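User: tokens in, sequence out, please.
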């Protein structure tokens, strides 16, 4: 029984870490998208000027 509880706890910790990593990846991707959008906007502005 103890082993079962320990295993479930381990799985929960791993799932939590995976969730955090996923959230961080989404944040990074969002930031990268915003940066790319800004680069494209600036490029267009530069071309206009």
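Assistant: Sequence out:
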């Amino acid at each position: 029984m103890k082993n079962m509880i320990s295993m479930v706890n381990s799985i929960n910790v791993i799932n939590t870490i995976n969730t955090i990593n996923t959230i961080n990846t989404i944040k990074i991707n969002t930031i990268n998208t915003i940066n790319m959008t800004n680069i494209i906007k600036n490029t267009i502005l530069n071309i206009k000027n």
